Amino acid sequence: MFELTKEHEDFRAVVRDFAEREIAPNVAQWDRDAYFPVDLVPTMGDLGLFGLVVPEEFGGHRDDDAGPFTALCVAIEELGRVDQSIGITLSAGVGLGINPILTYGSAEQKERWLPDLVAGRALAGFGLTEPEAGSDAGATRTRATREGEEWVINGAKAFITNSGTAITTVNTVTARTGTNPDGSAQISAIMVPNGTPGFTVEPAYHKLGWHISDTHGLTFADCRVPAGNLLGEEGRGFKQFLKTLDDGRIAISALALGLSRACLEQATAYAKTRTAFGRPIGVNQGVSFQLADLATMVEASRVLVYKAAWLKDEHDLGRRRVTEVKQAAAIGKLYATEAAVTATRIATQIFGGNGFMEEFPVARFYRDAKILEIGEGTSEVQKMVIARHLGLPQG
């Protein structure tokens, strides 16, 4: 059965120390300034955070016997406990930047892009969502037309993480490249280096939360890239994206777990020291019962997150079916993210008026939480996936 090893827990301690020493003292100011700390990324690379699932030949240190994906979730959880934006930078940097290239890239593409991405010298984005195509990714309107030895891309993408930093080198985008025999869109994935003529990274969004995270819209106007920039097989981009999302859902669950833990820890500490009517507020059942609920949600989230991560590692070794991973990923994502949103509401309520003040981290937690129920597949999409795996009739 799944469990975290001593190596995982030792690694957790290293990441926690890094997060508390390098991130925690600065994060409130970074959040106020909507500042992306680009210099932090190479430091994360030096810790090996971007290389946990990458083989040594590309600069990583993947160890299949040590649960590499589980280790990545441990790192995301610990970063997310201090700040969600830094956590998603790692999650997207690996899951959406590195993994598609590692899984579907040619030898040349891997050799060109992976070493810098793994080292934290570069970041990569993955352009899937569009202004008119979110949960319905099959409705992609961006088109790529083959002209000789080039792809000509036209269209737009929305809400793309890590897409426009000073060290972002490439964005992989999905685009229509034809029509399948059944009339559906043939979707392929194509790598577009930043700075390519016709490719514009739009100004950063003004977001409710995740202020530190780099997020942009992307537009393509007769953007030409070599035919060799096709990632994987032509027409297989949609299926590639679905596999990418399965892994990403587990990672987002770990991010949510980190947020719920932070809420529990900070609200419990506050309840021990904040007094009202001459005694600590934690004496009151109205507070203590809420903390008991929060502790239960944290523990349940932890079990679901790491069961899904364990299944992912086991599947990579050929020991589990992909359907098991998909179901566990959807269940973990649904529960852990909705629990995190509830956790921030509880923590803010316990902090009372102080919880509404930006001087206290729970205010940032409250803002950061909601996107967890939306990104990497909404809660409604997770319920569709879960129900489908129950064998219910399909309409």
Automatic annotation (TrEMBL):
Annotated ranges, domain Acyl-CoA oxidase/dehydrogenase middle: 126-223
Domain Acyl-CoA dehydrogenase/oxidase N-terminal as annotated: residue spans: 5-120
Keywords on record: FAD, Flavoprotein, Oxidoreductase
Cofactors (names): FAD
Keyword Flavoprotein annotated: yes
A Pfam family hit: Acyl-CoA_dh_M
Domain Acyl-CoA dehydrogenase/oxidase C-terminal: 235-390
PROSITE patterns documented for this protein: ACYL_COA_DH_1 (PS00072), ACYL_COA_DH_2 (PS00073)
Family statement drawn from the similarity comment of this UniProt entry: Belongs to the acyl-CoA dehydrogenase family.
Protein name: Acyl-CoA dehydrogenase family protein
Organism of origin: Nostocoides vanveenii
